[in-house]
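Researcher: I'd like a candidate sequence for this fold, 501 residues long. If you have to choose between options at a position, lean toward the conservative one.
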């Protein structure tokens, strides 16, 4: 048994960041991770001579003033080497029109979208207005949703006048903005927006909260931008992990949390974990829980039984998506000339495929070769309900379907693949320990986003949620912002109210 001030469950970006901030400020922290490495959905794995990013393949927030930049500056560690993505992505709607490059330069993107979507200027201007208001608000360190007086004060001091204007849209969707701008029948624009929003909000135009969607649609442009990390996505978590090790933080890999309960005799949280070799018990004043909140139904069984309303809230959360991810490699000469690391295109049979292609010299493949990762959303129940024979058969079918779609899109001959494999939600569950292998957080619809979402502050004093299901949402930048918020809440509970990045 060991006692610490903070136990952090999960060494993804959210867990690493919250542990790094709190340990930097002098609190004793133990970080528990079920996998043998950090990173979670933003980690990597190796096959032969290739390094593949498990899930996330691009990063926001590395620019000056971005969330990763501010965190790394606070921790006094260098940012990983990265290059701006320009264009951030090329979207091919497969409708006979020119593919759509999403440019980093604002003026270039304005020209592009006016050419691609005539008559849509008012919609984009409205999105930009909302985004600017959101960005100022986010930089003022709000706490959402509000659960007590301290949270309310943080929200109140973060508000700016424009928030009072855009706040009237709190229950609106992106489709409501389109309708307001007379674009509700613009099928091509809606098709494009659906592809982009599904990536970042897990919802379409009809269900994505306007206040959330407006910001994610602006994140590719200067002064923000999306970034390609050199070597791999793992460099982000490696930097945070190294920072923790230098301060002597206890990082425990290969231990799966079995239960979390409050010990009334010790007046501490009791976290029981186990590996193949041993069982461990950790006691802490506070627990930061970074897995999906659905996992609480297994880990927090006894406390939840005593709080029916909270248990019902967790049980009623909408089902998140799973993903099929195609990992492959080939010689650079065997794919048509590409002008972006990221593509998104439509397949009549598969729907939307998001493709990430490595750069020469970024460490993911030997010289003259590239890695290519393609992903699409899938319903998790479609995979976990299969017997072994049907599962293997379906997996092979999808491997072939995705291979053929990529061969047609990028002029690849089928015999030129050097490596290819497919990960399903079952594989993601084994790798990340996320229930049913779900990816991303909760769909950012008006009933979930912001004031109406799950709070990091649970009904159980000292137990905190953090990660892609908590404000402001998914992605490495989103979960890092979540980690900063929960760190501020914990520090305030200990009488430290002056922590800001």
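Model: Candidate sequence:
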């Amino acid at each position: 048994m060991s006692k610490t001030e903070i136990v952090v469950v999960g060494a993804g970006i959210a867990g690493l960041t919250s542990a790094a901030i709190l340990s930097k400020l002098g609190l004793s922290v133990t970080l528990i991770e079920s996998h043998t490495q950090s990173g979670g959905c933003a980690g990597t794995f190796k096959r032969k001579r290739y390094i593949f990013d498990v899930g996330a393949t691009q990063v926001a927030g590395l620019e000056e003033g971005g969330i990763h930049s501010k965190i790394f500056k606070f921790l006094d560690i260098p940012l990983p080497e990265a290059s701006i993505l320009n264009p951030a992505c090329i979207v091919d709607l497969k409708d006979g029109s020119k593919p759509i490059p999403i440019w980093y330069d604002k003026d270039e993107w304005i020209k592009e979208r006016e050419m691609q979507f005539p008559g849509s200027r008012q919609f984009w201007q409205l999105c930009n207005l909302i985004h600017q208001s959101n960005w100022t608000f986010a930089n003022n360190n709000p706490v959402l949703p509000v659960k007590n007086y301290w949270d309310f004060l943080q929200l109140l001091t973060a508000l700016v006048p424009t928030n009072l204007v855009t706040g009237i849209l709190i229950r609106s969707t992106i489709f409501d903005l389109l309708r307001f701008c007379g674009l509700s029948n613009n099928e091509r624009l809606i098709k494009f927006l659906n592809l982009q929003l599904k990536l970042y909000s897990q919802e379409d135009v009809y269900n994505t909260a306007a206040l959330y969607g407006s910001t994610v649609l602006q994140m590719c442009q200067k002064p923000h931008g999306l970034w390609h990390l050199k070597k791999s996505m793992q460099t982000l978590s490696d930097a945070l992990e190294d920072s923790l090790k230098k301060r002597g933080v206890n990082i425990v890999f290969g231990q799966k949390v079995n239960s979390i309960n409050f010990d009334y005799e010790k007046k501490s949280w009791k976290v029981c974990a186990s590996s193949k070799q041993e069982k461990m018990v950790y006691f802490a004043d506070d627990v930061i829980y970074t897995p999906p909140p659905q996992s609480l139904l297994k880990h927090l069984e006894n406390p939840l039984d005593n709080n029916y309303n909270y248990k019902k809230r967790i049980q009623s959360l909408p089902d998140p998506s799973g993903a099929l991810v195609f990992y492959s490699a080939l010689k650079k000469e065997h794919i048509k000339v590409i002008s972006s690391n990221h593509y998104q295109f439509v397949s009549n049979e598969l729907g939307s495929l998001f493709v990430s292609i490595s750069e020469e010299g970024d460490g993911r493949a030997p010289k003259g070769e590239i890695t290519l990762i393609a992903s699409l959303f899938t319903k998790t129940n479609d995979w976990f309900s299969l017997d072994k024979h049907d599962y293997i058969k379906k997996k092979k079918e999808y491997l072939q379907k995705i291979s053929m779609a990529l061969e047609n899109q990028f002029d690849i001959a089928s015999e030129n693949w050097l490596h290819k494999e497919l990960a399903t939600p079952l594989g993601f569950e084994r790798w990340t320990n996320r229930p049913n292998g779900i990816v991303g957080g909760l769909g950012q619809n008006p009933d979930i986003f912001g004031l109406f979402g799950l709070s990091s502050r649970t009904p159980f004093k000292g137990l905190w949620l953090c990660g892609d299901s908590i404000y402001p949402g998914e992605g490495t930048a989103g979960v890092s912002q979540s980690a900063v918020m929960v760190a501020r809440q914990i520090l305030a509970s200990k009488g430290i109210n002056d922590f800001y990045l």
